[in-house]
Every structure is written in C-alpha cells, then in structure tokens.
Amino acid sequence: MHVEVVGYREFWGGRMLALVGGQEGGTATKMDKEFESKLSIQNNCPSSDNNSNPQRSKSFAFRAPQENFSIQDFELGKIYGVGSYSKVVRAKKKETGTVYAMKIMDKKFITKENKTDYVKLERIVLDQLDHPGVVRLFFTFQDTYSLYMALESCEGGELFDQITRKGRLSEDEARFYAAEVVDALEYIHSMGLIHRDIKPENLLLTADGHIKIADFGSVKPMRDSQITVLPNAASEDKACTFVGTAAYVPPEVLNSSPATFGNDIWALGCTLYQMLSGTSPFKDASEWLIFQRIIARDIRFPNYFSAEARDLIDRLLDIDPSRRPGAGPDGYASLKSHPFFKGIDWNNLREQPPPKLAMEPKSQSDVGEDQDSLWNPAHIGDGSAKTTGGSGGATSTSEAGSVTRLASIDSFDSKWQQFLEPDESVLMISMVKKLQKLTNKKVQLILTNKPKLFYVDPTKLVVKGSIIWSDNPNDLSIQVTSPSNFKICTPKKIMSFEDSKQRASQWKKAVEALQNR
Ligand SMILES: Nc1ncnc2c1ncn2[C@@H]1O[C@H](COP(=O)(O)OP(=O)(O)OP(=O)(O)O)[C@@H](O)[C@H]1O
C-alpha cells in the first residue's frame, strides 16, 4: 500500500516511497509519520497510515512546483557546501542538462533538531521571491529520507571566498558588490522580510560574478509582509530569538530587541567593512568578546579606507537602528545616494561588468569537474542505501558549534561579565532549572574557557555554586537523560538540570570538548 501523508506533501510534494511491509517499510513509515506531524499545516487533515486517499483541506499554489523527481534523475557533482542542517550539491538534470544547486535536507535530522519551521519558511519565502539578486528556487521533491530544493546554481561561490582569496577587495569591487546587495536588500525589505543572516558566506556569486543573496533559513516576515506564510511555517515566538552569526549581530539584538530591517543594514555595514579590510569589524578571540566589542561599538577603521567608505560604514553601524541609512523613514534613498555609491547606475546594476572572480587555487588532489561528477550519492536518497548517521550533511562539530553559538547569543547579557576574569570568556551559557527535591530554581549556568563551570542566581546576581573542574571524566561528567535534562556528576554530588531549549547534549559536548582539548 502506498503511504502518503497530507501536510508533508503540502510543502514538498513528490512521491513517497515508504511501503508498508516493504523492505524499509517499518522504519521509513515511522519516520515519515514523525516528520509529517511536524511539517503538517495546522487545521489540515490529520495524517494516518490508512489515509490512502488524502484530502487537502487547504492547498497553496507554489510557484516552484513540487515534482515527482528522484535523486537518480540527476547527475551529482561537487558539494558546494554544508550548512547546519543541509548539504548543497551541484546537480545536473540528466534529461535536460540543466544544472541546479540541490539543497538536500535529511528529514530525520530536521525533526531531531526541531528545524521544520525553518525549512518550511525558507521553502515558502524563496518560492515567492523574484529578484535577480535573490537565489531562485526552481522546484522541490522528496523521498523517504530527504527533502530536496533545486536552487539556482551560483557557480562563482561565496563572496567570503573572494575576500579570502584576494586578501581584501578594492573600493571599486566592494562598491559593486555592496550596491548589488543593497538593491536585493531593498527588494527583500519591500516584501516585508528581514533576512537576519547577511554575511559574506551567504552572498553567493553567479558564474559571471553577480551577487545572489542566499540562505533564507533565518528569515523573519514582518507583520505586514507581502509574503504569504502558511500557518505553522513561522512561529511567532522567534520574533526576538537571535538566529544568525555572532560577528554580524547588531547591538540591539544582543539586548533582545525585536528584529527590524535595521538588523540587515548593520550586517551590511559589517560585510562592507570585511570586503574592504579582509576581516569583520568586531573580530575577537571568542564570541563573548565579540559581543563585548559590538555592545561597546568598538570599531577601528584601517587608514586606507576612503573617507566615503568610512562614513558610510560608520552610519550603517549606528547604534540606533532607525538612523541607519536604508532603515530610516526615507527608506533606501539616503543609502543609495551616499557619496560612497557615487557613479552607481542603480537602474542598470545587473548590466554592469562585475569584478573579475579570483579562482580557487588548484590543489594536487583537484582533478576537475569530471572527478566532481563522480561524487557518490549512495548516502542520500531512498533507493540504494540508507542515510548515514542522519545528520543531513551537518557534521557533529558544526552542529555542536552552531548550537553553542546560538546558546551563547541567546543568553548574552553583559551582566555576566562581572563573574569572569579579564581574560576569561564564556563558551556556553543557558538559563536552566536546577532540579532539587523540594524546589526547582532558575539559574544561569555558565561554562568558560578557563575552564570553569558555575551557576549564578539571575536575580540576586550571586554565584550559587561552582563545579570543581576536572579533565578526568571519572571526576566530572554530564549524563544526558532527555533532550532537556542532564546531570552534572562529580564524585561528591550529582546535580540535575533542565534546559528548556533542549541543549542537554550540547552541554555534554561542550564539557567533553574542553576535557579533551
Ligand atoms: N544556490 C547555491 N549555489 C551554490 N552554492 C550554494 C547555493 N546555496 C548554498 N550554497 C553553498 O552551500 C553552503 C550550504 O548552504 P546552506 O544554505 O545549506 O547553509 P548555510 O547558509 O551555509 O548554513 P546555515 O544553514 O547553517 O546558516 C553555503 O555556504 C554555500 O556555500
């Protein structure tokens, strides 16, 4: 019997290959159901094993069609990159020869990491965006294990790599790229969307060198957004949650202010600074120190920056988000007319010749495109083999890194600084519940690079307890009992904690990483 589940198909369409009683039936069906329950649209028909003739009570016309393709219909080439819950691979449609950047997401991993909202939102938002400066979504499909998004292929790689390869960009090059980003951001903001993760890694380049903004996994639709967002595709509680990257976070986000267009404008300022200097403006040894610099607005301009570049960056990095050009009452006019952009023909941007791309230096192991196409797809798709480890391409290190990153940003507040020594920085921090026999107490649990592990009463701002550090797991270990619950075990006592953001295993990883450093 063909098992098909309603809401799942609403977003990705395509065929479902889970056969009850078939070879992979048991596991696949259970997994599909589990994932389905997370992806389904509220108020829709409940999914059921027996629902062989599903009715759609609500359907949404996607521009990018939900195809019945299989990954076998594509010749897979090199891996463009790996995100925190996806892998992007060059994929040529065998029938037509058209090349796409195939974003492949492992359903099991997405479910486990609670990323379904992000995945749905990115699919829905990209579907409705239509601008030469935004990466295009062509179609989606799925199989038992993975979701696939066929994106416009940006063969020129990331702007980040151009900066790295060139050391830094000339003002003309930076002006060109910045103008294309401004043009695309103006469009994105006009649609009522805040991107929330503008940085050189998410600015991709076409083969001929034009900018495309990518990675809409952190996008935030504003209340009056032009974009149709299906019921549970974006949860409101994410309004004040930071999702992004430490070095590009604006100060107001560190103070838990709701997201505004000004967030992207700040990140644009950081990106322009990075193009011109080779590094981000708030670089430091740890994220904690980066946040300190951001809060203090500690910017140092290299003396080779022109007066116009310096002035523009200074304005983009205004502490007051509404004073940043582009985010204020006069919209983008003040940004586009800034002297740094003198000579830019805003109406014919895409007709201008882009800067020459610096190519990747060939290493000895590089054998070119032919070899790329031999990339073995056996670990994706549902046909020949099962997925390995279910990480959807995210390595455990990047996974731990990104979660730690979010944990530290979420809880960032300069008030914890008083508990640190001058050269000490926070590696992981969370508001957790300390579970005791009679009462549960909220405490701020802090792990530093010393290493030091202690917890603070968040109201009285006093240290309530310190765990004696040991690199020996017999003397200090973390026992994870559920996604939210963990125990800190020492020979003398065992303390139980609950982390409502489900970071129990991240605490374990963070402590173990320090013990093995
Ligand atoms: N359309 C594309 N064309 C070419 N390369 C791409 C494309 N989209 C993404 N990539 C590459 O694949 C990498 C992974 O992309 P993805 O969108 O999955 O996640 P990310 O933006 O890196 O990370 P995260 O989801 O953790 O923020 C990117 O860093 C980029 O280098």
Describe it.
This protein has 517 residues and is of the alpha+beta class. The protein has three domains: 3-152, Phosphorylase Kinase, domain 1; 158-213 and 238-351, Transferase(Phosphotransferase), domain 1 (Orthogonal Bundle), CATH 1.10.510.10; 413-515, Pleckstrin-homology domain (PH domain)/Phosphotyrosine-binding domain (PTB) (PH-domain like, Roll). Helices cover 28% and strands 18% of the residues. Bound molecules: adenosine-5'-triphosphate. Residues 80-84, 86, 88, 101, 103, 135, 151-154, 158, 201-202, 204, 214-215, 217, 402 line the site of adenosine-5'-triphosphate. It is an enzyme of class 2 (transferase). Pfam families: PH_3, Pkinase. It catalyses: L-seryl-[protein] + ATP = O-phospho-L-seryl-[protein] + ADP + H(+); L-threonyl-[protein] + ATP = O-phospho-L-threonyl-[protein] + ADP + H(+).
End-to-end gap: 52 Å
- Ligand roster: adenosine-5'-triphosphate
Q: Identify the CATH homologous superfamily of the largest domain.
A: Transferase(Phosphotransferase) domain 1
User: Helix count, per DSSP?
Assistant: 14
Biased composition (Low complexity): 381-400
Catalytic activity: L-seryl-[protein] + ATP = O-phospho-L-seryl-[protein] + ADP + H(+); L-threonyl-[protein] + ATP = O-phospho-L-threonyl-[protein] + ADP + H(+)
Organism: Olea europaea subsp. europaea
GO molecular function: ATP binding; protein serine/threonine kinase activity
